[in-house]
Amino acid sequence: IKEIRMTESFTPVKQKPAKELRPMLGAILLGLILFIAAVVAWCYYTASLRKAERLKTELMDLRPEGFVIRNQNGEVVFRLAFRSGSLDLESCSKEGEILSCTRSDRGPLNFFIQTVKPKDTVMCYRVRWEEFAAGPAVEHTMFWEDAHWYGGSEMSTQHWPIRLAGYQEPVPYVTSDVYSFRDSFGGILERYWLSSKAAAIKINDSVPFHLGFNATERALFFQARYKDSPYKPPPGQQPFPELSYRVCVGSDVTSIHKYMVRRYFNKPSKIPSENSFRYPIWSTWALYKKDIEQDKVLDFAEKIKKYHFNCSHIEIDDMYMKAYGDFDFDPIKFPNATEMFTKLRNDGFKVTLWIHPFIHKDSSNFGVGIERQLFIKEPSGRLPAMVEWWNGIGAILDFTNPAARDWFQSHLRQLRHKYGISSFKFDAGETSYLPKLHESLVAPLLLELAGEVTDTGDPIIRPIWWISPRDEATHKIDSQFLIGDTLMVAPVLEMGKQERDVYLPMGKWRSYKGELFEKTPVLLTDYPVDLDEIAYFLWVS
């Protein structure tokens, strides 16, 4: 009996510690796992630090998300972030002065930084990021930090140093008419920026370059892409975007700028006329605008002499031709242009002519341009792309075509030799005058309607009453028209006007400015239209 009692009393004592040990063992096991994970993480972290330390190159520190460059004093003078992806540092290696990586978080790539020290006081870095896929853009962000920055493009409102406002996603870095397109880039632009902290960056000319900015972050967005872009890859190459540039740092802003200019920019081959530095250029536009003729030009020169101003350059501006694109003087307005030029030269004047790349349909050269295929063409490649500029509608010479360049230059040489012209003023023709609206809105609609014409016989260009035949007001409208049933155009036809009346028939219409008109029919009186705009309305429902 005693043995049984001892056994009974002993058995619970064995079971109780086993139950209590289970959570204790679990906690120990969990702690061991966490300890191992911490050790692994620490080892990975220290290995990454050692890797990053090995990837340092002179004054640059490379990180997965970007890099910084310091000057000799250890101060950060340039900071850049990889906005479109992060580098996988495990794929990076360094041989000599070249640091290269083969992967990012988006996939394989070709990335390298080459260190170059051209002078004791200058350190440069050649950077290249190339994707192996056609779709994604490559984008890097350069931060202004607390430095002043200079360079870039001509803007409608020019600040010195650069001062930007708001936010702009990257757009093609191409020339435009800043008077008509206030937020665009002007006719002069360089892929070059200079910092007051003696850092400079030059984007390579081969890059399909787009520029944006964020004023809040004090940042510029440098982007390379071919998708939805005017840039095209070289013939025979895949549309893989590549962003490549050079960053140089020096001892001061002047010396680094001098180095960059001498290294990456061509020097002028000749010195312009001394008179153009010393004396004013007298333009007929300032006094006569388009109303010029031979007697007025000679009278203009006489007034300059009469009031004892310098007889330097006279620029004969707009409307000396009979039609835009003639490349010669209107024989009615200038009955003896040769005699006029002789008189001006004898009086000590050099003469400049205003030149542009537009050829109007009433010019004698319009047929020549079509026959020789000298013009930029619409998407089908069969017809010239007629574009609107500030003097009407015309074709524009395709200067990527060597034949067009030679033809244009030959006419300028003829003008120079015939009249003794000393120089030309090149104006207009920025990329903003390419047929953007026509390509994006009108051309697709025209192609769609053209496919329907063979079935329905309906005209492509239609009167307003076409969609509202019982509205008597539409019967009298002769200055608005439809393209198909959904696009209504209301051009301004009076010279100098910046408004017009627009009649909207029954339906819901959205203007090109984004305004929605639902209470129709309605007459919009004095509807504002800028000189560089064409009023149009899209039928919503």
TrEMBL record:
Question: Glycoside hydrolase family 31 TIM barrel domain: which residues?
Answer: 283-433
> Mind telling me which InterPro entries this protein's record contains?
Alpha-glycosidase_related, GH, Glyco_hydro_31_C, Glyco_hydro_31_TIM, Glyco_hydro_b
- Pfam families with a match to the protein in the record: Glyco_hydro_31_2nd (PF01055), Glyco_hydro_31_3rd (PF21365)
A molecular function GO annotation: hydrolase activity, hydrolyzing O-glycosyl compounds
**Where in this chain does the record put each Glycosyl hydrolase family 31 C-terminal domain?**
457-537
Q: Where are the transmembrane segments?
A: 24-47
Sequence similarity: Belongs to the glycosyl hydrolase 31 family.
The protein's name is MYORG glycosidase
- What organism is recorded for this protein? Nothoprocta pentlandii
